[in-house]
Structure formats: C-alpha cells, structure tokens
C-alpha cells in the first residue's frame, strides 16, 4: 500500500491555462470524486474493477477573491 499525495494539484479559473492545472468556474460548487481502477500495469489499457468514492466534507465553492488576508498570503506563498 502507498500513500497518495495531492500536494501538487493546482486549481485555476484561467481557461487558457497551459500548465496542466485543473480548470474550475468561479462561484460554482464542487465535490471531488476519487476513482480507483485496477490495471495490470501503468501502461495497460485493460482495466479490472473500478471503485468510486466521494466525501461530503470535501465539497467546496470556488471564489475569485478571498476576504481573509491570511488566506490571500497563503495562496501567494504556494
């Protein structure tokens, strides 16, 4: 078993983004969903079983501006 990290995932509202970020629309509600797919190897096109998981506590609404200065500074640093 291995730990999965989503540390490097970046979200943006820039529809012209060329950096591979996930594009979201401002003022929309999202709930991430995780799909676990069994495959023989990483290059295989044959998939086995598939399980999907979502967690209500991960639901969020996108914004264009933060009202909290600490959050704004955190976003600038990362």
From TrEMBL:
Query: What are the record keywords, sorted?
Result: Developmental protein, DNA-binding, Nucleus, Transcription, Transcription regulation
Listed under GO biological process in this entry are:
cell fate specification; positive regulation of DNA-templated transcription
Q: InterPro entries attached here? A: p53-like_TF_DNA-bd_sf, T-box_DNA-bd, T-box_sf, TF_T-box
Identify the Gene3D superfamilies for this entry: Transcription factor, T-box (2.60.40.820)
Transmembrane stretches, start-end: none
The superkingdom listed in its UniProt entry is Eukaryota
**GO terms for MF:** DNA-binding transcription factor activity, RNA polymerase II-specific; RNA polymerase II cis-regulatory region sequence-specific DNA binding
Tell me which residues make up the T-box domain: 1-78
Q: Does the keyword Transcription regulation apply?
A: yes
GO terms under cellular component? chromatin; nucleus
Entry's SMART domains? TBOX
Primary localization class, coarse: nucleus
Q: What is this protein called?
A: T-box transcription factor TBX6
Which organism is the protein's source? Answer: Cynops pyrrhogaster (Japanese fire-bellied newt)
């Amino acid at each position: 078993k291995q730990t999965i990290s989503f540390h490097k995932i970046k979200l943006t509202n820039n529809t012209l983004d060329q950096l591979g970020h996930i594009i979201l629309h401002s003022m929309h509600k999202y709930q991430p969903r995780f799909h676990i797919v069994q495959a023989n190897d990483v290059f295989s096109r044959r998939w086995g079983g598939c399980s999907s998981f979502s967690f209500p506590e991960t639901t969020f609404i996108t914004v264009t501006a933060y009202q909290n200065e600490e959050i704004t500074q955190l976003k600038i640093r990362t």
